[in-house]
Design goal:
The complex is a heterodimer.
Chain A (H helix, E strand, L loop, with lengths): L2 H18 L13 H13 L1 H18 L6 H19 L6 H24 L5 H7 L1 H22 L17
Chain B lengths: L1 H14 L5 H75 L11 E11 L7 E4 L12 E4 L2 E9 L4 E5 L6 E6 L5 E6 L7 E4 L12 E4 L3 E2 L2 E2 L7 E9 L8 E6 L8 E7 L5
Antiparallel strand pairs in B: 1-2, 1-14, 2-5, 3-4, 3-14, 4-5, 6-7, 6-9, 7-8, 8-13, 9-12, 10-11, 12-13
The chains are: A mainly alpha, B alpha+beta.
């Protein structure tokens, strides 16, 4: 099975589990976001292009599964996938990076979602998202990032990094 | 490119009608995902039940004593109510009284399982495993055994989206069963599961402990999408400020929005599929 197919199946499973099970979970006011964590882990290990593609696909699937506003999640998750992919490319793509990246992505995703909904003229309860539930959601996502990170590393090992330029010499 | 594609999809989806290309594509996609969602929900159900069982066990003893006392009280009330109900039917017949659709006599209830929930904390919405194929339409009221849950806001062939009462966009015309004070019930600010009965003027009487039900109004051909008489919740606090025109009334819903697994969609009798 090719790596792309494995990533696609992982994201499909994440979306199904998120929509059917995890969105109904309430732990101290927060709910884990498996799709965000999966996209984040894929992006850190596989780079910006794969991360953006994974975010776009997973977002569309999520909006379809929940009959939500089509394009909303894909826009935000594409951004998350791209930026975490860039982070993975510039920093060492190790498993220790994923929880930190996921924590930052959770904050960025919440801010981005609030801004997007404000622009679209939809209710954007900032207090509930940023004060009442953000820390709990962040902690749950970070906890979830360790097993997901290990799974992604096993299914889709990090792409080999381009050899860095060690020095420049003049010809002749 | 992908960001641009997302923005184009978002813009077109917002502008087009519910019969547009993207809405139809989404509807087909949701129907295709439905078996996976149902399977995942069924696999997770025993675990959710187990967690709920442990939680319930802690409160079971004190709740049992309270419910026994309540049964006695309700038994006496039932006898009184039966007499009043018969008088009511007889008087309506004498007056040839014309009423708006009422619950549950003018509706048939369609049971449906919840297969998905909206991610994040923005929307309070669930997706149920029944759609146009089963006779469900947009704005159909949705209830559970304990009371009103919300209404259908989007519908596909085999699934439908239900927006819960606790969503920011929900509002229901409601009245106090004991005093007949009417207002608009909507999402509260203090917590996600609290509701607020707004637009109740200060001259109306509302007391903590009063039961709030749907008002089910009718003006000419227009009528409320919710039939009269569906229980919503109980008043927990009443306050008023000198500077405010309306009372501030908080209502605790009868429905536990955190532990839903199936719902009843109220479909008007006589509607064709």
């Amino acid at each position: 099975m090719t790596t792309s197919l494995k990533i696609a199946l992982l994201l499909l499973l994440s979306v199904v589990l998120q929509a059917a099970v995890l969105s109904g979970v309430d732990i101290l006011g927060g709910a884990p976001d498996l799709v965000l964590v999966s996209v984040g882990a894929v992006a850190v290990y596989r780079g910006a292009m794969v991360g953006a593609g994974a975010g776009f696909g997973a977002g569309l699937l999520l909006d379809t599964a929940t009959l939500g506003t089509l394009g909303e999640s894909s826009f935000l998750l594409t951004l998350v996938g791209y930026w975490l992919g860039r982070y993975g490319e510039t920093a060492h793509r190790g498993p220790r990076r994923v929880p930190f990246a996921v924590a930052v992505a959770t904050l960025g995703y919440a801010l981005g979602a609030l801004a997007l909904r404000f622009v679209l003229g939809q209710p954007a309860p900032a207090y509930e998202i940023l004060i009442a539930t953000l820390l709990q959601t962040m902690a749950l996502n970070v906890a979830l990032s360790w097993p997901i990170s290990a799974l992604v590393r096993r299914l889709a090992p990090p792409a080999p990094r381009a050899r860095s330029v060690e020095g420049v010499g003049s010809l002749g | 490119m992908l960001l641009l594609a997302s923005l184009v999809i978002l813009s077109v989806y917002f502008r087009e009608s519910s019969a547009g290309v993207l809405h139809r594509a989404q509807s087909l996609g949701t129907s295709a995902l439905r078996p996976l969602l149902v399977a995942a929900e069924r696999v997770a159900q025993p675990f959710e039940d187990g967690a709920g069982w442990v939680g319930d066990l802690v409160e079971a003893k004190s709740e049992n004593a309270r419910l026994r006392a309540q049964v006695e009280e309700l038994r006496q009330q039932l006898i009184q109510n039966e007499t009043i109900r018969r008088d009511n039917i007889w008087l309506r017949q004498q007056l040839r009284y014309r009423d708006s659709p009422s619950f549950p006599t003018d509706y048939r209830a369609l049971g449906a399982r919840i297969v998905a929930r909206a991610p994040g904390r923005f929307e309070r919405q669930v997706v149920i495993a029944a759609g146009t194929g089963q006779g469900v339409r947009v704005h159909d009221p949705v209830v559970v055994a304990s009371g009103l849950l919300g209404q259908v806001t989007k519908v596909a062939k085999s699934v439908a989206q239900v927006t819960l009462l606790t969503d920011e966009t929900s509002a229901v015309s409601a009245l106090d069963l004991q005093t007949n004070a009417s207002g608009i019930l909507r999402h509260g600010q203090s917590s996600a599961s609290t509701l607020v009965l707004d637009r109740v003027t200060k001259d109306k009487v509302v007391r903590p402990g009063d039961v709030v039900i749907t008002a089910g109004w009718r003006v000419g051909r227009l009528s409320s999408i919710y039939p009269r008489g569906i229980p919503i919740g109980v008043v927990t606090s009443v306050g008023q400020l000198d500077t405010d025109v309306y009372k501030q009334i908080e209502v605790a819903p009868f429905v536990d929005f955190g532990s839903l697994d199936s719902v009843l969609v109220l479909i008007p009798k006589g509607r064709r599929r």
